[in-house]
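The protein record reproduced below.
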Amino acid sequence: MKTNRTKIVATIGIHNDLQFIKKLYKAGAGIFRLNTAHQTPDETEQIIGRIREVSDRAAILIDTKGPEIRTLDIEETIEVKEGDEVFVIPQGVKMDRPHFSVSYDKFCDVVTRGTEVLIDDGDMSLIVIDKKDDQLRCIANNAGKIKNKKSVNVPKIPIALPSLTKKDIEYINFAAEIGVDFIAHSFVRNKEDLIAVQKILDKYNSPIRLIAKIENTEGIENINEILDHCHGVMVARGDLGIELPAEEVPLVQKKIIRKCIKRSKIVITATQMLHTMIEHPRPTRAEVSDVANAVLDGTDALMLSGETAYGNYAYEAVTTMSNIAAASESQKKSKVRRKNTEKFNPVRLQMITAAESTARALGAKAIIVQTDTGRSANLLSSLRGKTPVLALSPNPTVVRQLALSYGVTSFHLRSQDTLDEMVSESVKTVLNEGIVGNNELVVLVGSSPNHSTVTNFIEAGEAGMFLGGRE
């Protein structure tokens, strides 16, 4: 598998056979996303089996549907011209004028005159010009078509929808039972949305990590409390670009990436990164710049959606993204500036910071970190140093979850009884992988056996000197 510091998430959709998944993995996709809105649990389970067959180190992320509003009761597509009137009315009601209903029964209560209603990812814009009882009279801002079961957005208007749909709850239970690695919860507005998911996972004592998809203004406003309750966030620029003016999205993206790095949280940049490659073998120059800028900003991962889910050039998209990331990473500056303002364990923070600075000063080939939970490896990742991080864990779930962390390559290593054995076996593992040589410098940091709650050792030297015990 080709590895970069910046990770690649590939969405699996209609293309999901074993050889296809294997090809994407070898090209550099280490995390596979399954969109539950378009799959049944049986289909998802089959795809998970194929991913696990390809690699026991590849991570699996599933999306929830989350709270959303869609158009309803449209039997025939409504074609409108700019200035045409369209009505939003209760479900089941009929009228002679162009009209439709929505899946949220309190929609007319919360929407006010002057509100912009965006349909189908913003392709159709309506302005509410009158509100009477339980119906809205709108005027079309542009010519277009209104179809059934298309998305409905009302920017900056809070919608009190339940965080979880019935299908979401079924899939979260399914995910906990089958053992995926991440759940990306859609349209997260506040900490309560995440707590609702975590409560279900806690019933299973599940190690699944939560990723909060930031797709609305509420999510942006509540980003600090959201980060308190998740492993990381996804900057989902599709819906975010509908909720916000387009020119604000890049600035929000940069702000969220900076905040996640500071908090040692994972951040995924997503949506239309190489959209042209759904139908064309090469990206536009603007898309290349978009991917490069996300890498230069320090994102942990880049996500491909339609490009790999149903696109004609899925392998090429992964290869292209990997090449852009590699070129951009070579120009990045190390961001090793960390103060303990985020309530990190002070001992762990000091030891991890010392390991990174030591590796940098010595020009070490790699930093080898032993971790039971992934905390030390993720904190090391958040320093965004240039020295490769090789993480070893006795927990297979942690090994897979670290596939999403910037600059980390993870391996499984069974628990050892003594510190000498752990160091020796760790170095032996990375030597066998061909990542470092006997005479190359490495820095080791981590927790000694039976002391996983504290990072308590750091060592440096040529890799070969750690084999068979230390003097």
User: Anything to note?
Assistant: The radius of gyration is 24 Å. The mean pLDDT is 92. Residues 346-466 form a domain with the Pyruvate Kinase; Chain: A, domain 1 fold (CATH 3.40.1380.20).
